[in-house]
């Protein structure tokens, strides 16, 4: 019996939130936009989590993705630039 193995890449990154923008960040991230969710699915992203350290204003995120090359195309997406 042959079992196809799915290889996933775990990616972690951090970003700096501008001071005074915590409320705006929370407002934008309380509910994922359906178009963004669809884009992530099409790109092969799953298990995306993002956390805010309110003391340092640092955002820390992790996700799993099959293709790192495909993930690199996200920045050219209209929905990602809208963010």
Describe the secondary-structure layout.
Layout: E1 9-16, H1 22-29, H2 34-43, E2 45-53, E3 58-65, H3 68-71, H4 78-82
Antiparallel strand pairs: 1-3, 2-3
Quick summary of this structure?
Helix content is 33%, strand content 30%. By secondary structure, the protein is an alpha+beta fold. It has a 3-stranded antiparallel β-sheet with strand order 1-3-2.
Structure, explained:
The chain has 83 residues and is an alpha+beta fold. The protein has a single domain (9-20, 29-74, 77-81), classed as Alpha-Beta Plaits. It has helices at 22-29, 34-43, 68-71, 78-82; strands spanning 9-16, 45-53, 58-65. It has a three-stranded antiparallel sheet with strand order 1-3-2. Strand 2 and strand 3 form a beta hairpin.
% residues in beta strands: 25-35%
Radius of gyration: 15 Å
- Compute the number of strand runs: 3
CATH architecture: 2-Layer Sandwich
Tell me the count of domains.
Answer: 1
* Count of DSSP-assigned helices: 4
- Tell me, what is the CATH class? Alpha Beta
Largest sheet: 3 strands, antiparallel
Low-confidence stretches: none
Shape: elongated
Give average pLDDT, whole number: 87
H/E element sequence? EHHEEHH
- The CATH topology assignment is Alpha-Beta Plaits
Strands side by side in the biggest sheet: 1-3-2
Calculate the terminal CA-CA distance, rounded to whole Å: 46 Å
**Structural class, judged by helices and strands?**
alpha+beta
- Give the % helix: 25-40%
């Amino acid at each position: 019996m042959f079992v196809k193995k799915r290889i996933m890449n775990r990616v972690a990154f951090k970003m700096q939130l501008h001071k005074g923008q915590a409320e705006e960040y929370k407002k934008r991230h309380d509910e994922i936009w359906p178009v963004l969710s669809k884009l992530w699915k099409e790109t092969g992203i799953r298990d995306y989590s993002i956390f805010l350290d309110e003391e340092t204003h640092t955002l820390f995120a992790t996700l799993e993705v099959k293709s790192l090359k495909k993930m690199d195309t996200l920045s050219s997406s209209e929905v990602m630039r809208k963010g």
